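BUG: 3D viewer hangs when loading the predicted structure for this chain

Environment: internal workstation, default settings.
Expected: structure renders.
Actual: progress bar stalls at 90%.

Input used:
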Amino acid sequence: MRARGREPYGSGRHRNEFFWLGLIALGLSSVVTVSSVVRANQNTPADPSAPTAVPADAEQPASAAVSPDGSADEPASAPAVGLRRGYLVPVLLPITGDEDTRLKRTIDKLLSELPVEGARPVLVLEFRTRVGQAGEASQFERSLSLARYLAGPRLSRVKTVAYMPADVRGHAVLVAMACENLMLSPDARFGEAGVGEEFIDPTMRRGYAEIASRRRTLPEAVALGMLDKQLGVYRARTLDGTRYVLDEELRQLQEQAAVSEVQTVSPAGDFLSLTGDQLREMGFASHLVADRQQLAAAVDVPIGSLEEDPSLLAGWRAARIELRGRITASLVNQTLRSIEEARRRQEFNFLCVWIDSPGGSPADSIRLAQALAELDASEVRTVAFVSDQARSDAALPALACDHLVLVESGLLGGPGDHQPGTEELENLRQPVQQLAAAKGRDWSLMLGLVDRRVDVYRFRQEGTGQVRYLSEEEADGLAGWQRGEPLDLRRGLLAREAESLGLARAVVRDFGEFVPMYNLEQEPQTIEAPWAEAAVERLAAQPWFARTLLFVAFFALMTEASKPGLGAAGFVSGLCFLLFFWSQFLNGNAGWLEVLLFLGGVACIAIELFAIPGFGIFGIGGGLMIIVSIVLASQTFVLPQNSYQFQQLPASLSMVVIGGAGAVASLVFVRRVMPYVPVLNRVMLPPPEPEELDRREALVSWSHLQGKRGTTTTRLNPAGKARFGDEIVDVLSDGELLPAGTAVYVAEVRGNRVLVVPIHQPPTV
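Structure tokens produced before the viewer hung:
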């Protein structure tokens, strides 16, 4: 007996379900097959003879997701980033000396390290020109050797792209032709390959014709027209399609009446030179790109993978600089001097910038960031490691590095030690934009981490699904981007958030994970100033150092105040206060205002005690001035203006508490410890017994002792005891320390105070 509602496997109802499921699956597979055929037909040029800049084995466009087996799926909602790896190798123009050999060794080492499996990587050759040059002086033999290498079978493992952000002339054109794709900025010019040559010999013509026919990036006629200005280049429409021909071939076609239309590309007598827009329009350039970010999107690789690797030839030589504490002008100056000195000695090609800073000076932070961004990426790889925080403007040096790595609890941007004013932020805008352009980043996100007035939104590009984080101002010049939800940058970015936004390359638990991540053999050696200077600055930066100085300063001050005269305790107190303000000067917290407030407070208290004792306005005001000077010297702000400054305020107030604790400890020490310490009891006598104290405090008149002579029975420090006849009374010296047994006489009596002087001094009338 079957349970109600269930049918056995293979029953009629299940067979019907299988039938309909099979029919639906067949229909879906048919749709997929038809759509694949349609896309294949759309990707096929209408004119087979028309030149194309994309080779037959080129990958699918960025808007389509490419599977590992090479088949194309439907356009995805997000770009197919990460399916392959990109590598960037600079080509330094002009190509002379051993530049071709250096490039071959670099590429050979890169090829030896490529993974065997996976999508075909992209090798981008970035043509870099010196100021005032565009490669005109490149040697033909060197350029031809490099071009044959690039067009040879060894580089079939990678897709080669010639990226030209500026003009390229001379025989460097031959090297670019040997790549599979040409990508230029819209205004960059490409051509005039034979400029500077007095005579174009057949060897040169054969070399250009060979590379053009082997790679087919440019038609042979176009390549020869760039080489020899005596050749005219024409675009002829024939029965077989559009062709690019030279003068002789054009005459032959015209004699055969096989030409329906002729367009002059470059007349004889002029070198052929084309802009990026013209190359793209003619189908020779696959993309027009203005920066590395657009380049990465064009070749469909992550922007972070298009970077140079200085270790390809010699391995990593790692060094480290540290940015700890508040960023100041002196800290930045010392850091830049250390980097320059180490670079002069060629000590490193990998620079780890260790950052643990709340910021402090936007002008100095951007100065350091610009210096880090200007380091030649082909010689030095810069990696910022945020061990705890890179708040406010301290985020700028971190983002100026090639890579950024944070610990799991790290924080990037947000409120920091210094709250920049409107003028400071306005002065920061243009340098940040230039910095972002140099590093291939969006400037809105960088500036938004420092300037809370910048509203940053998530923008998505129609069709490709590519995501960028822009302000409306930066997005105004971009077409096809839709604004999405805003980002909240007011508190900064946590490590995982920075990683998800593409700012951080990785998040690690500690520096121990950082070292193997970059295949470093050992931890980078720290670049430091001379050992004495570095030790002093490291000591001054420790929070406990300033607190200890304040405690000792107040302790010694109260000890000195317990007895007249300036002694060792007073000297120690003054020295500790001096070192305290010096350390805060060094950390960038204190200025002349704090020092003047402190000195003014001490002067007011001195006036209250010795000059015009009375109501206490000088004493109270002086005490407040000293407290305010200590608080201001412990922080960079006057009144807190952001959450970080509010968090720092208790630490500043704790300095006052520590100073007060030193004063209280001094009073306890002076009254209860000092009189019983073997050496220190010479300075202060033990307190009297209670009975003696009661007797001493009774009302008594010692006027009858005026002018009498006696002998001290104890040491006068300057207080003590003396015998006058049968009476032993408490006496005071005039500040001189007198040993026991000294003959004295009474110089003055005021109530119960008896002032004595040594017997050798003449009596005072």
